[in-house]
Amino acid sequence: MPFDKLRANGMAYFIAGLMMYCLLAPPTMAAGAAGRLPDLLDLPAPADARAQTGTQLAVARAGERLVAVGVRGTVLLSDDHGRSWRQARAVPVSVALTDVHFPTAQEGWAVGHSGVALHSTDGGETWTRVLDGREIARIVLEDARARVDGGDDSTAAARALRDAERLVEEGPDKPLLAVHFADGGRGWVVGAYGLALVTQDGGRSWQSLVGRIPNPRGNHLYRIQADGDALLIAGEQGVLFRSADGGESFEKISTPYGGTFFGALALDGGGLLAYGLRGNAWRGEEGGESGAAWTQVAIDLPVTLTGAQRLEDGSIVLADESGRLLRSTDGARSFAPLPAAAATGLSGLAQAADGALIVAGARGLARIEPAHLAPSARSAHSTQEETR
Amino acid sequence: MNHAHALPAGAVIADLADFDRRSGSLGERLLFNNRLAIVVLCLLITVVLGHQALGLRLNAAFEKMIPTGHPYIANFLEHRSQLAGMGNTLRIAVAATDGDIFSAEYLDTVRRLSDEVFLLPGVDRPYMKSLWAPAVRWTGVTEDGLDGGPVIPDDYDGSPASLEQVRVNVERSGEIGQLVAADYRSSIVLVPLQERIAETGERIDYHALSQRVEELRAKYESDRIRIHVTGFAKVVGDLIDGLRQVLVFFAAALAICTGVLYWYTRCLRSTLLVMLCSMIAVVWLLGMLPLLGYELDPYSVLVPFLVFAIGMSHGAQKMNGIMQDIGRGTHRLVAARYTFRRLFLAGLTALLADAVGFAVLMVIDIQVIQDLAVTASIGVAVLIFTNLVLLPILLSYTGVSPEAAQRSLKAELMEAGDTAHRKHPLWAFLDLFTRTPWATVAVAVGLALGAIGLAVSFQLKIGDTDPGAPELRPDSRYNRDNAFMVSNYAASSDVYIVMVKTPQYACAHYDTLMAVDALERELRQLPGVEGTSSLAGLAKIANAGMNEGSLKWYEIPRSQDMLNAIITRAPREMFNQNCDLLTVYAYLKDHKADTLASVVATVEAFAAQYGSEDVRFLNAAGNAGIEAATNIVVRKANVQMLLLVYAAVIVLAFIAFRSWRAVVCAVVPLMVTSVLCEALMVWLDIGVKVATLPVIALGVGIGVDYALYVMTVLLARLREGMSLSEAYYRALIFTGKVVVLTGITLGAAVATWAWSPIKFQADMGILLAFMFVWNMLGALILLPALSHFLLRPKRAVAV
To answer: What positions does the domain SSD occupy (chain B) (predicted)?
Structure first.
């Protein structure tokens, strides 16, 4: 009989012969040594009974499997195309993880706050830390100092060194926001205040890209992804960068919009779709010397676009932060809302191997059935051409 | 043999001249030789206290219903002034029945209503919130940064364009589910209350406030507007309204008692005298309460009723004794004195047992129960004067009607005259229990019932089991309003608050927020917790907000500058002015004891592990936190109280009987009843709570009366040398039949409470009725059966 119940029952207690008048003091605090909570960088992600409905920030495919990452170091895995999820066995940190990418079914990387990058070689079951904010600051400082020591006496180099020194001072307070790996060895991570690093050996060593991206104002970099053989980075204040040489150097693509782009997507026939704040979606055609010719894509509501996903049939789905999904079947010239909507606070998208769309956001993960991805007939929008 | 207790007849003295006025104890002589003075004195006291009673107030203060001495509550009370708008908040939902809230008419109604509410006394005005409150704002992200303003724009003019603006503002205000229902068909006026009115310093009058709210409801409700009100103040207001109906029960009980008593005696004047004396006791009690600074609350309002019922029980004993003596031909004054001699000690012991039983409730650190204990103890003490002293004196003047006396005598002659053959069938049946095999059967059945009851009672729950306000019935208006709130708004009606104390200006330190976030995570693991919120969660949202609303920034920023920037915008519900106190809210699925206990245990464990001088985690505020503390106190008090009440009853019974064996015979039946009462609570799904805690103490206190009256006579007869059967039979026809009478009468009378609109009064009524009736059965069946085994005289020898 549980002691609790015994205590709950006065009469039973009494009759049971415990005639001693005993003062049952309120539960006293255990006199154990009060411990400090370890830093989130050193605190393994705890098992969370409600991880599935907690905030998830990104989701990616690892072969047939789906891997989602989110707050408090949560990594969730699904082997049934997003119908059910379980927590990864071992994640060494408890910071919020912002992005995940698996170039192969086994090898994957995730990034997050405090400058963390994690590596998994078993399809996301277990993870090891390969980078953190303290390490990043050291690498960036070394790089900047090398530039100055190497004879670069430009003001830009001097400023980069000052910035790098401040980065070290401020500690690991800047998040990495996106990760992309070309294969099991070569990969790039980007983040807040223009942080960008590259690895050639699967994350064992990293080099700073800060000096190689023309981002003097240190705008946040929200997304990095492949554009054919090239790399594409999207960020704050309408910045887009492209590297055609595998990340050795980046060029800035001029855009007509000054607000944040949360991502950019390479389109099938060449060209780009950049999307961001307040319903801004822009379609860029390969142009001449000036880079690209931009057209604004009509989006009916001024709600921030947070994610885009090219589906296997070639159509493109855009997600906005209110949870609305829009689809284009004409190469991003026009978008029509899908009847299916996800919960508000949408952050990441991926297509499952069975064709369903998996969305990650403030309310956790949701699976949208392939049948619900067809646009509703009535609300097709014509493209509103507005060339700048 | 003590002469003062000499029974059964004394000498039959028909003429007062033959009576020795100097006989009897000092007390008896003092009282009965100054009868007129006593009567006049009582009359004066009644007039004075009756006047005082008119000043008695009905109220129920929040603080009186909670265990203020418990460390959790002490934490709450210490910090309550810094905890904005919690614990005692009125929520007024204004619902549009036709269309949504974005209409000029609707918004105008809300404005006029909140303007009126703003002026109500006791409203903590700076923290009041509604769509129209300037503090209710929207924020939005633009390319240039954050933008924001009041939800209802300064240039609002009711035009369709500005209504559309309101809609957009509401959507980005973050108030959906808080101030505005998700279906946009209702919004809330949130009214935090102060325990004391700021302007006057007086305690808030919940009944008046509730009535004002009802007036507002009547004024603004129409076929297009419905109003739903929840909050502690409304519960109390409805309770006090419900108390009006208690008067109806009082009247019903009065009628039942009078009717039964008259049916039994067929003597109008003595019936009325018994009622009169019991009423006088109630008047004295009600008069003494304001003198002593007490008010009646929804709990103690039942006390006058109990006092009346107990008084009736004792009064009937006195009257019965006097009637029997007068029937035998004794002069009425002598009869009164004889009865006083015979029964005063038993009556005094019984009343003292009652008083002590009630006084034991003082150990419970909840003021309403302590008030109830004091009130009931005073009431019972008053009965010593009115029903043990004044009533025999009055009866010594009036006597009883001759027919009734003759009737009583005839009954007695018939019963006592030929004990072997012509017993009244009921008494004959009860007498069987003094012998084998009936005694064995009764003891076996009694013990079996006790064992079964004990087994069932292990499932006894602590705390409330129903959703909403458990004080009121599930289908009451209040609980329907509450259901509306719960289904339309995200905030649960069961909020548990953990206070986090830090050094000054350290409330937003990164380490503090990390610890708070870790606590929230632990709490969210509990199945009973639906959600949590705190400055830590807000910091994450704000961090995302300051980064153009990107969810990727949903993390507590490490930069202290960023955190400082965040708290300048944070709402005051999250932290205090000095920035040394954070509040962590846990929204619970229900307020069942297990749910609350799981939260308490989690917070305690977390505090033990991670608490430090700089970050102290303190339980508990919020209605659920207070209830958790109350449960802890109630759980502990239930044990203490039973131990004490039984200890008191045992000591008093021993003083009265001077025999341990007799004590066992008297107390074991009470214990069986107590166990069965707990089993009944399990069966009826009634938890141990503030309202039901006193029931067993009251039941035992009153139940012991029966045993005392029966056992006193039984022992006296046994000591005279009668056999157990004979002695018990004598006890039955002398005091036992009044025990039957009062047990049934009291049981029937309290059972009328079952129709009370106040749920806990109904619960108390059912349980008390059960206790009264079962204690009576115990005293009449189990008591003689146990006596058969424990008190059998070795040999019937005349003394």
So the answer is: 275-397
